[in-house]
Write a structure and sequence with these properties.
365 residues; mainly alpha
């Protein structure tokens, strides 16, 4: 059976190669669009957040920020009190923030695998700037639509976390919980080394994420050029890549509901990015995908219910605008510069990273 599957995969690769040759212009345009998306949206919106998140975790400061959130984190989500800042950053920082934070804590032994697996499905949310500005104002022509979508995402994520917490509380499993910061502050690496390591980790993670964005954007453009417009095309492309899905949903009768579903699921592109971040951690992707599908169904149903309860709001959320793509003749040059600077940064910081890792390992012993 496995051998048969390998034959089908090999046949699919041959077909992909044929498409790359026959529709080279479409593939190139899609890849270029993906590069522009990375340079104009992904990197500017995520890089600083990823550095900040990594620095908080590597330096141990995340536990200080979690102190005021501790009672809520433990009571509502049945999580260690020190996870409050991780949940907060994941809900406002964009899709990969939660996965990156959870993977870092798991690798450092500050979170057990079962708790990390439980946190992953609800610590995944599109950022407010993307939902409100790009989807709401840009695609639906209404900032109110973006605010509604974001609030629904937050509500369903918190609800999912609370339900999983109730299930965990019923099992009464002992959680791995960090002590107070003052008791183990020396276990974390120095601030300077934590900062250098955080920047390096962010560059590496963003490079991997941008690769998936470019690949799936090219694939989405190939499919959109062959499929006719309609709900089926919208569902297929939305399950593949969230941006194209929301754009197509803005022209559908129940577009706001479809966009809410796409934002909740994130698409296979986001799933691939998260799988890359979680590589080597032992966390399973299948439960995450199943719960994200349930998240999508709940968020779409809530939006549909709200529109049925308040029909006068449908006009406010109607689509009256389309995003204007921004092309730049310097995009290839900027891409080459970005790759060169990333490689230079990794080369220059490699000795400091190794020194920090050795210091951390000595402290753990």
């Amino acid at each position: 059976m496995k051998q048969t599957g390998r034959y089908f995969i090999a046949l699919g690769c041959v077909l992909c190669a044929a498409i790359l040759v026959l529709d080279g212009d479409v593939v190139a345009a899609g890849a270029l669009s993906g590069v522009q998306l990375c340079l104009q949206t992904v990197i500017p919106s995520l890089f600083c957040f990823m550095v900040l998140t990594g620095f908080l975790i590597n330096s141990g400061l995340y536990r200080l920020i979690s102190l005021p959130l501790g009672p809520l984190t433990k009571g509502l989500f049945c999580l260690p009190p020190s996870m409050g800042s991780v949940v907060l950053l994941s809900l406002i920082g964009g899709y990969p923030m939660g996965a990156k934070s959870i993977a870092g804590l798991l690798e450092q032994g500050r979170l057990d695998r079962a708790t990390a697996q439980r946190m992953l499905p609800f610590c995944c949310c599109a950022g407010p700037s993307f939902i409100i500005t790009a989807v709401g104002s840009g695609m639906f022509g209404s900032a109110q639509a973006g605010i509604l979508l974001y609030l629904v995402q937050l509500f369903v994520s918190i609800l999912l976390g609370a339900v999983l917490g109730m299930r965990e509380r019923g099992q009464q499993r002992r959680m791995l919980c960090d002590p107070l910061p003052a008791q183990r502050a020396s276990d974390f690496m120095p601030m300077s080394q934590a900062f250098v390591l955080s920047v390096s980790q962010a560059v590496s993670a963003l490079g991997q994420m941008c690769g998936f964005v470019i690949l799936f954007k090219a694939l989405s453009d190939i499919l959109s050029s062959t499929l006719e417009g309609g709900v089926l095309s919208c569902l297929l492309l939305g399950s593949l890549e969230v941006t194209n899905g929301c754009l197509l949903a803005s022209g559908q009768p129940l577009g706001l509901c479809l966009a809410s579903c796409f934002l909740s699921f994130g698409g296979l592109s986001v799933a691939a990015q998260i799988a890359g971040i979680l590589r080597g951690t032992g966390l399973r992707l299948r439960p995450f995908l199943l719960l994200r599908m349930a998240h999508a169904i709940c968020s779409g149903g809530i939006v549909l219910l709200l529109l049925r309860l308040f029909p006068q709001a449908v006009g406010v959320f109607s689509s009256v605008a389309r995003p204007v793509p921004i092309a730049n003749a310097n995009t290839p040059l900027l891409t080459v510069c970005l790759v060169m600077m990333s490689a230079l940064l990794l080369i220059q910081t490699q000795p400091l990273i190794q020194k920090g890792a050795r210091h951390f390992q000595r402290k753990e012993r």
